[in-house]
């Protein structure tokens, strides 16, 4: 069985039982619902205790349980073709340069981690149509300036303005 086949099996069981992702993530628990759903869709791994809970819920074999605990090959072809996922791609293409400029002005020369990272998704009621609220928080990781010497900073943290 491939990881993609396991994902399809999990989705089939979800459909057959009429389960919501909320039911599944509440039953497995232990980490963010985004990570649990990501793992069940083949993009993340579940630590052993959570892989065991998922296997029990879905009636999976030991081999399938072990697959949930393996580090997957992550990502999808670019650009994405699913309209909802494409909108995120579009947001980054359009707003990415501004986000980059603002983050660098505030923090320095570096990146926002997508590994040391939290994300939340919630419904925001609105009389003109409910909105999707997504909050992200990633650790700032400054670039390291290899070979820095003679008072040159080793990391790209924001420098104080020259006087």
How would you explain this protein's 3D organization?
The longest helix has 25 residues, at 83-107. It contains six helices and two strands; from the N terminus they run H-H-H-H-H-H-E-E. It is globular and about 65 Å long. The N and C termini lie far apart (64 Å). It has two domains: 3-68, lambda repressor-like DNA-binding domains (434 Repressor (Amino-terminal Domain)), CATH 1.10.260.40; 83-142, Cyanate Lyase, Chain: A, domain 2, CATH 3.30.1160. Strands 1-2 form a two-stranded antiparallel ribbon. With 163 residues, the chain is α+β, with helices and mostly antiparallel strands.
Offer a few descriptive terms.
2 strands; Cyanate Lyase, Chain: A, domain 2; 2 domains; 163 residues; alpha+beta
CATH architecture of the largest domain: Orthogonal Bundle
How many helical stretches? 6
CATH topology of the largest domain: 434 Repressor (Amino-terminal Domain)
Helix content: 40-55%
> What topology, given as strand order, has the largest sheet?
1-2
Q: Biggest β-sheet, characterized?
A: 2 strands, antiparallel
Query: What's the total count of β strands?
Result: 2
Shape descriptor reads globular
CATH superfamily of the largest domain: lambda repressor-like DNA-binding domains
Give the N-terminus to C-terminus distance in angstroms.
64 Å
Instruction: Report low-confidence residues grouped into runs of 5 or more.
Output: none
Structural class: alpha+beta
- What would CATH call the class of the largest domain? Mainly Alpha
Rg calc? 20 Å
């Amino acid at each position: 069985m491939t990881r993609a086949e396991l994902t399809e099996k999990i989705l089939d069981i979800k459909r057959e039982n009429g389960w919501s992702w909320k039911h599944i993530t509440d039953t497995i628990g232990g980490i963010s619902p985004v990570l649990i759903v990501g793992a069940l869709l083949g993009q993340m791994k579940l630590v052993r205790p959570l892989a065991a809970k998922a296997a029990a819920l879905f009636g999976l074999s030991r081999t399938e349980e072990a697959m949930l605990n393996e580090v997957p090959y992550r990502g999808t072809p670019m650009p994405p073709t699913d309209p909802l996922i494409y909108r995120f791609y579009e947001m980054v293409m359009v707003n990415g340069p501004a986000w980059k400029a603002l983050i660098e002005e505030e923090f320095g020369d570096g990146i926002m981690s997508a590994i040391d990272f939290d994300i939340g998704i919630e419904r925001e009621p609105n009389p003109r149509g409910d909105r999707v609220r997504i909050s992200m928080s990633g650790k700032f990781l400054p670039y390291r300036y290899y070979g820095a010497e003679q008072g040159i900073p080793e990391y790209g943290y924001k420098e104080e303005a020259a006087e």
